[in-house]
Amino acid sequence: MSNISATAPTLINQLEVAQAALGLTDQQLSDALGFERGIVLSLIKAGTMRMPLTKIPALAKALDLDAPDLMRAALHESSPELSDAIKEVFDPLHLSAAEVTLITHLRKLSGGQAGASIVFEGKGVIALVAV
Fold first, then answer.
1. Bridge partners, 127 (sequence order)
2. Per DSSP, what are the bridge partners of residue 66?
3. What average pLDDT does range 104-108 have in this prediction?
4. How far is CA 48 from CA 12, 15, 39, 51, 53, in A?
5. Angle at 124 between CA 123 and CA 125, to 5 degrees
6. Domain with CATH 1.10.260.40 in the chain
7. Which residues of 106-125 are buried (b: 16+ CB within 10 A; e: fewer)?
């Protein structure tokens, strides 16, 4: 069973919304993705061709979107069963976006050093002690 919501925006929807918001032409986006021919992006948008997964990092950068979210959407649309298997193996805790953000900030604040988190029961406070 997939954890991607049926109402989640598709990869193409995310692409089109972000592209319009940034005012990028298809040619500019095609260039940013390294497509030799502009027709490739048109085929992807039309649903005739899938976005190559190897282009997701460049797409995220060009559109200022979250690369992991785009990769999850693209992988799920490409192969839901593979997407579910990867999620099961690499995200056994099924972290929420807020939890991932918290962990990312903790890692950044600790500067790569070992740290210990302290949770104050009943309070909305979490502290990081870096050693």
1. 118
2. none
3. 80
4. 12, 16, 11, 10, 15
5. 90
6. 11-90
7. eeeebeeeebeeeeeeeeee
Please name which of 56, 90, 89, 58 lies closest in space to residue 73, comparing C-alpha atoms: 56
CA distance 107 to 115: 9
Query: Which residues are bridge partners to 116 per DSSP?
Result: 129
DSSP state letter for 55: G
Residues in the chain: 131
Q: Residue 5: pLDDT above 50? A: no
* pLDDT (tens digit per residue) in 35-71: 988 899 999 999 999 999 999 999 999 999 999 889 9
Fold observed for domain 11-90: 434 Repressor (Amino-terminal Domain) (1.10.260)
